């Protein structure tokens, strides 16, 4: 079986990721880099979407066009996942956006759910789960379980992340072997505080300029 983990290898992604890593990068530049990489991830992760044909009219004559057939859902994990949302909405303007609030407890590093916008019934066919960093993998796994409990099959979920750790990606793979994961690069190490090394730092703080010394 082909690998379900897709690591994008592209010079444009490499240069933007290098900019994101630098401490000197401003919040504005960081947001722009996250947006650009998210857009490229979204394009690659949507290659196999089913299309539906229709007959339209140009100024010259008729043509056969296509639209995206499945209903698309976006589930950004607050708050850092919001940095990926606008790029995905550029690709899927009619997508339904359901926010998930999960934070990682600092001592145990365990995920804690505090918010869910998922309605009672499933209203989408394909879900893109948006989480910029997969560090220990705990938050992503918790979000995935929320989506499964909602009623979306794992084969209809695609996890998009800017950066993952080797351990975090392996954990998600082991718990959800049929899940498609799209990531721009994978770093080899985690610190004893569960931070990706060399990583990007705290994505939410860097996106929204809330860094503290």
TrEMBL record:
<keyword id="KW-0342">GTP-binding</keyword>
<keyword id="KW-0021">Allosteric enzyme</keyword>
<protein>
    <recommendedName>
        <fullName>uracil phosphoribosyltransferase</fullName>
        <ecNumber>2.4.2.9</ecNumber>
    </recommendedName>
</protein>
<comment type="similarity">
    <text>Belongs to the UPRTase family.</text>
</comment>
<dbReference type="GO" id="GO:0005525">
    <property type="term" value="F:GTP binding"/>
</dbReference>
<dbReference type="GO" id="GO:0005737">
    <property type="term" value="C:cytoplasm"/>
</dbReference>
<feature type="domain" description="Phosphoribosyltransferase">
    <location>
        <begin position="7"/>
        <end position="210"/>
    </location>
</feature>
<keyword id="KW-0547">Nucleotide-binding</keyword>
<dbReference type="GO" id="GO:0004845">
    <property type="term" value="F:uracil phosphoribosyltransferase activity"/>
</dbReference>
<dbReference type="Pfam" id="PF14681">
    <property type="entry name" value="UPRTase"/>
</dbReference>
<dbReference type="InterPro" id="IPR000836">
    <property type="entry name" value="PRTase_dom"/>
</dbReference>
<dbReference type="InterPro" id="IPR050054">
    <property type="entry name" value="UPRTase/APRTase"/>
</dbReference>
<dbReference type="InterPro" id="IPR029057">
    <property type="entry name" value="PRTase-like"/>
</dbReference>
<keyword id="KW-0328">Glycosyltransferase</keyword>
<comment type="pathway">
    <text>Pyrimidine metabolism; UMP biosynthesis via salvage pathway; UMP from uracil: step 1/1.</text>
</comment>
<keyword id="KW-0808">Transferase</keyword>
């Amino acid at each position: 079986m082909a690998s379900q983990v897709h690591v994008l290898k592209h010079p444009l992604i490499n240069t933007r990721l290098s900019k994101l890593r630098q401490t000197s990068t401003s919040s504005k530049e960081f947001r722009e880099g996250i947006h650009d990489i998210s857009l490229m991830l979204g394009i690659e992760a949507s290659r196999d979407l089913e299309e539906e044909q229709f007959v339209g009219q140009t100024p010259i004559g008729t043509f056969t066009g296509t639209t995206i057939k499945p209903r698309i859902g976006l589930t950004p994990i607050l708050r850092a996942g919001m940095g990926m949302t606008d790029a995905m909405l550029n690709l899927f303007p009619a997508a339904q956006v359901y926010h998930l609030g999960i934070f990682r407890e600092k001592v145990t590093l365990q995920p804690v759910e505090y918010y869910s916008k998922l309605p009672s019934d499933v209203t989408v066919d394909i879900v893109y789960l948006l989480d910029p960093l997969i560090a220990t993998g705990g938050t992503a796994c918790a979000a995935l379980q929320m989506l499964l409990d909602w009623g979306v099959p794992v084969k209809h979920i695609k996890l998009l992340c800017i950066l993952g750790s080797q351990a975090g990606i392996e954990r998600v793979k082991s718990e959800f072997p049929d899940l498609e994961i799209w990531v721009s690069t994978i770093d080899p190490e985690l610190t004893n505080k569960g931070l990706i090394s060399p990583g990007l730092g705290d994505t939410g703080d860097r996106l929204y300029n809330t860094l503290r010394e």
